[in-house]
Amino acid sequence: MQKIVTIGFLICLYLAGCAPVVKNPTPITSPGIQTTYPHTDQEYKLQVGDQLDIKFFYNHELNEQVIVRPDGRISLQLAHEVMVAGLTPSELTQLLTQKYAPELRKPEITVIVRSLGAYKIYVDGEVTKPGMFPLIGFTTVLQAISQAGGMKDTARTSEVVIIRRGEFNKPLAFQVDLRKVIDSTDISQDIVLRPFDIVYVPKSPIANVNKWVDLYVRKNLPISISTGFGYYPQ
Question: Angle CA(96)–CA(99)–CA(105) in degrees, nearest 5?
Protein backbone atom coordinates (compact mmCIF):
# COMPACT_ATOMS: atom_id res chain seq x y z
CA MET A 1 0.00 0.00 0.00
CA GLN A 2 2.81 2.41 0.89
CA LYS A 3 4.56 1.66 -2.41
CA ILE A 4 1.36 2.31 -4.38
CA VAL A 5 0.82 5.66 -2.68
CA THR A 6 4.44 6.64 -3.30
CA ILE A 7 4.25 5.74 -7.00
CA GLY A 8 0.95 7.57 -7.33
CA PHE A 9 2.44 10.67 -5.76
CA LEU A 10 5.41 10.53 -8.13
CA ILE A 11 3.23 10.16 -11.20
CA CYS A 12 1.14 13.14 -10.09
CA LEU A 13 4.36 15.16 -9.86
CA TYR A 14 5.58 13.74 -13.13
CA LEU A 15 2.38 14.62 -14.98
CA ALA A 16 2.57 18.15 -13.56
CA GLY A 17 6.16 18.62 -13.89
CA CYS A 18 9.56 18.56 -17.19
CA ALA A 19 14.71 18.49 -19.52
CA PRO A 20 18.38 16.66 -21.31
CA VAL A 21 18.45 15.35 -24.78
CA VAL A 22 17.37 11.86 -25.78
CA LYS A 23 18.19 10.40 -29.16
CA ASN A 24 15.17 10.62 -31.46
CA PRO A 25 13.86 7.08 -31.87
CA THR A 26 11.59 6.12 -34.73
CA PRO A 27 8.03 5.75 -33.40
CA ILE A 28 5.92 2.69 -34.14
CA THR A 29 2.63 3.81 -35.65
CA SER A 30 -0.46 2.24 -34.16
CA PRO A 31 -4.14 3.31 -34.38
CA GLY A 32 -5.21 5.47 -31.46
CA ILE A 33 -1.69 5.84 -30.07
CA GLN A 34 0.20 9.09 -29.96
CA THR A 35 3.30 8.71 -32.15
CA THR A 36 4.79 12.23 -32.22
CA TYR A 37 7.81 12.23 -29.99
CA PRO A 38 8.02 15.39 -27.87
CA HIS A 39 10.66 17.97 -28.72
CA THR A 40 13.48 17.19 -26.27
CA ASP A 41 16.35 19.47 -27.25
CA GLN A 42 14.88 22.63 -25.74
CA GLU A 43 17.23 24.48 -23.43
CA TYR A 44 16.74 23.78 -19.75
CA LYS A 45 14.71 26.32 -17.76
CA LEU A 46 15.87 27.25 -14.29
CA GLN A 47 13.80 26.10 -11.32
CA VAL A 48 13.58 26.66 -7.58
CA GLY A 49 16.42 24.87 -5.77
CA ASP A 50 18.85 24.91 -8.72
CA GLN A 51 22.44 25.67 -7.78
CA LEU A 52 24.09 28.19 -10.11
CA ASP A 53 27.62 29.42 -10.65
CA ILE A 54 27.73 33.01 -11.90
CA LYS A 55 31.15 33.59 -13.47
CA PHE A 56 32.62 36.94 -14.55
CA PHE A 57 35.45 36.64 -17.07
CA TYR A 58 37.07 40.00 -16.29
CA ASN A 59 35.76 40.56 -12.74
CA HIS A 60 36.50 37.44 -10.72
CA GLU A 61 35.75 39.19 -7.45
CA LEU A 62 32.05 39.14 -8.46
CA ASN A 63 31.93 35.38 -9.02
CA GLU A 64 29.20 33.78 -6.92
CA GLN A 65 27.54 30.44 -6.30
CA VAL A 66 23.84 30.85 -5.53
CA ILE A 67 20.72 28.73 -5.09
CA VAL A 68 17.39 29.73 -6.61
CA ARG A 69 15.16 30.60 -3.67
CA PRO A 70 11.54 29.41 -3.23
CA ASP A 71 10.39 32.77 -4.64
CA GLY A 72 12.34 32.07 -7.84
CA ARG A 73 14.94 34.80 -7.21
CA ILE A 74 18.67 34.98 -6.54
CA SER A 75 20.67 37.71 -4.82
CA LEU A 76 23.81 39.07 -6.49
CA GLN A 77 26.31 41.83 -5.85
CA LEU A 78 25.40 45.03 -7.70
CA ALA A 79 22.42 43.40 -9.47
CA HIS A 80 20.67 42.65 -6.14
CA GLU A 81 17.40 40.69 -6.52
CA VAL A 82 16.97 38.90 -9.85
CA MET A 83 14.01 36.72 -10.87
CA VAL A 84 15.49 33.67 -12.64
CA ALA A 85 12.92 30.86 -12.37
CA GLY A 86 11.56 30.04 -15.81
CA LEU A 87 14.54 31.53 -17.65
CA THR A 88 17.05 29.46 -19.61
CA PRO A 89 20.74 29.82 -18.66
CA SER A 90 21.36 31.81 -21.86
CA GLU A 91 18.43 34.13 -21.10
CA LEU A 92 19.77 34.70 -17.59
CA THR A 93 23.22 35.40 -19.04
CA GLN A 94 21.73 38.09 -21.30
CA LEU A 95 19.70 39.58 -18.43
CA LEU A 96 22.72 39.77 -16.12
CA THR A 97 24.85 41.28 -18.87
CA GLN A 98 22.26 44.06 -19.23
CA LYS A 99 22.05 44.60 -15.46
CA TYR A 100 25.83 44.80 -15.02
CA ALA A 101 26.43 46.93 -18.13
CA PRO A 102 26.05 50.24 -16.21
CA GLU A 103 28.44 49.02 -13.51
CA LEU A 104 31.13 47.20 -15.50
CA ARG A 105 33.07 48.28 -18.56
CA LYS A 106 32.93 44.87 -20.23
CA PRO A 107 30.59 42.42 -18.46
CA GLU A 108 31.43 38.94 -19.81
CA ILE A 109 29.23 36.57 -17.80
CA THR A 110 28.63 32.82 -17.83
CA VAL A 111 25.84 30.98 -15.99
CA ILE A 112 26.59 27.36 -15.06
CA VAL A 113 23.90 25.04 -13.65
CA ARG A 114 25.78 23.03 -11.02
CA SER A 115 22.89 20.93 -9.80
CA LEU A 116 19.15 20.65 -10.31
CA GLY A 117 16.81 21.48 -7.47
CA ALA A 118 13.68 19.70 -6.34
CA TYR A 119 13.50 17.23 -9.21
CA LYS A 120 12.93 13.54 -8.59
CA ILE A 121 13.05 10.28 -10.49
CA TYR A 122 11.53 6.94 -9.56
CA VAL A 123 13.01 3.47 -10.01
CA ASP A 124 10.70 0.46 -9.74
CA GLY A 125 10.59 -3.23 -10.57
CA GLU A 126 13.43 -5.73 -10.24
CA VAL A 127 15.82 -3.52 -8.28
CA THR A 128 17.08 -3.95 -4.73
CA LYS A 129 15.56 -0.80 -3.26
CA PRO A 130 12.80 0.70 -5.44
CA GLY A 131 11.86 4.24 -4.58
CA MET A 132 12.06 7.96 -5.30
CA PHE A 133 15.48 9.57 -5.73
CA PRO A 134 16.74 13.13 -6.23
CA LEU A 135 17.80 14.05 -9.74
CA ILE A 136 21.18 15.71 -9.24
CA GLY A 137 22.92 16.91 -12.36
CA PHE A 138 22.76 14.59 -15.35
CA THR A 139 21.74 11.07 -14.34
CA THR A 140 21.59 8.11 -16.73
CA VAL A 141 19.38 5.02 -16.48
CA LEU A 142 22.19 2.87 -15.07
CA GLN A 143 23.13 5.54 -12.54
CA ALA A 144 19.52 5.73 -11.37
CA ILE A 145 19.34 1.96 -11.03
CA SER A 146 22.58 2.06 -9.04
CA GLN A 147 20.95 4.52 -6.62
CA ALA A 148 18.23 1.90 -6.19
CA GLY A 149 20.78 -0.69 -5.11
CA GLY A 150 21.29 -2.25 -8.53
CA MET A 151 19.30 -4.84 -10.45
CA LYS A 152 18.26 -8.21 -9.09
CA ASP A 153 19.33 -11.45 -10.76
CA THR A 154 15.75 -11.76 -12.04
CA ALA A 155 15.87 -8.42 -13.91
CA ARG A 156 15.27 -8.40 -17.65
CA THR A 157 17.93 -5.90 -18.66
CA SER A 158 17.04 -5.95 -22.34
CA GLU A 159 13.59 -4.37 -21.84
CA VAL A 160 13.95 -1.62 -19.25
CA VAL A 161 11.04 0.79 -19.68
CA ILE A 162 11.22 4.58 -19.28
CA ILE A 163 7.92 6.41 -18.69
CA ARG A 164 8.08 10.11 -19.44
CA ARG A 165 5.70 13.03 -19.73
CA GLY A 166 5.06 13.97 -23.34
CA GLU A 167 2.99 16.55 -25.15
CA PHE A 168 -0.28 17.54 -23.47
CA ASN A 169 0.88 15.71 -20.29
CA LYS A 170 0.43 12.33 -21.96
CA PRO A 171 2.80 9.66 -20.62
CA LEU A 172 5.12 8.18 -23.24
CA ALA A 173 7.02 4.91 -22.93
CA PHE A 174 10.11 3.59 -24.64
CA GLN A 175 12.57 0.80 -23.95
CA VAL A 176 16.32 0.72 -23.51
CA ASP A 177 18.52 -2.37 -23.75
CA LEU A 178 20.96 -2.16 -20.88
CA ARG A 179 22.68 -5.38 -21.95
CA LYS A 180 24.27 -3.39 -24.77
CA VAL A 181 25.44 -0.77 -22.27
CA ILE A 182 26.94 -3.36 -19.94
CA ASP A 183 28.84 -5.12 -22.73
CA SER A 184 29.77 -1.73 -24.33
CA THR A 185 28.21 -2.50 -27.72
CA ASP A 186 25.81 0.48 -27.56
CA ILE A 187 26.34 2.87 -24.66
CA SER A 188 23.83 5.31 -26.21
CA GLN A 189 21.12 3.10 -24.66
CA ASP A 190 22.12 4.51 -21.27
CA ILE A 191 20.14 7.69 -21.85
CA VAL A 192 20.08 10.77 -19.64
CA LEU A 193 16.92 10.94 -17.53
CA ARG A 194 14.61 13.90 -17.29
CA PRO A 195 12.83 15.19 -14.17
CA PHE A 196 10.05 12.88 -12.93
CA ASP A 197 10.99 10.01 -15.27
CA ILE A 198 10.01 6.54 -14.07
CA VAL A 199 12.50 3.72 -14.71
CA TYR A 200 10.90 0.28 -14.58
CA VAL A 201 13.04 -2.87 -14.66
CA PRO A 202 10.78 -5.81 -15.60
CA LYS A 203 11.10 -9.40 -14.49
CA SER A 204 9.58 -11.00 -17.57
CA PRO A 205 9.17 -9.98 -21.22
CA ILE A 206 6.68 -7.18 -21.86
CA ALA A 207 4.75 -8.24 -24.94
CA ASN A 208 2.76 -5.03 -25.39
CA VAL A 209 4.49 -1.97 -23.94
CA ASN A 210 1.55 0.37 -24.58
CA LYS A 211 -0.88 -1.90 -22.75
CA TRP A 212 1.59 -2.48 -19.91
CA VAL A 213 2.19 1.23 -19.34
CA ASP A 214 -1.55 1.91 -19.38
CA LEU A 215 -2.11 -0.74 -16.71
CA TYR A 216 0.92 0.36 -14.69
CA VAL A 217 -0.14 4.01 -14.52
CA ARG A 218 -3.82 3.29 -13.88
CA LYS A 219 -2.99 0.72 -11.22
CA ASN A 220 -0.78 3.09 -9.24
CA LEU A 221 -2.50 6.43 -9.79
CA PRO A 222 -5.32 6.99 -7.26
CA ILE A 223 -7.36 9.16 -9.64
CA SER A 224 -9.03 8.58 -12.97
CA ILE A 225 -7.11 9.94 -15.95
CA SER A 226 -7.47 9.81 -19.69
CA THR A 227 -4.16 9.14 -21.41
CA GLY A 228 -2.69 8.19 -24.72
CA PHE A 229 0.60 6.39 -24.98
CA GLY A 230 3.31 6.38 -27.54
CA TYR A 231 5.93 3.62 -27.56
CA TYR A 232 9.34 4.35 -28.94
CA PRO A 233 12.00 1.66 -29.29
CA GLN A 234 15.46 2.87 -28.39
Answer: 100
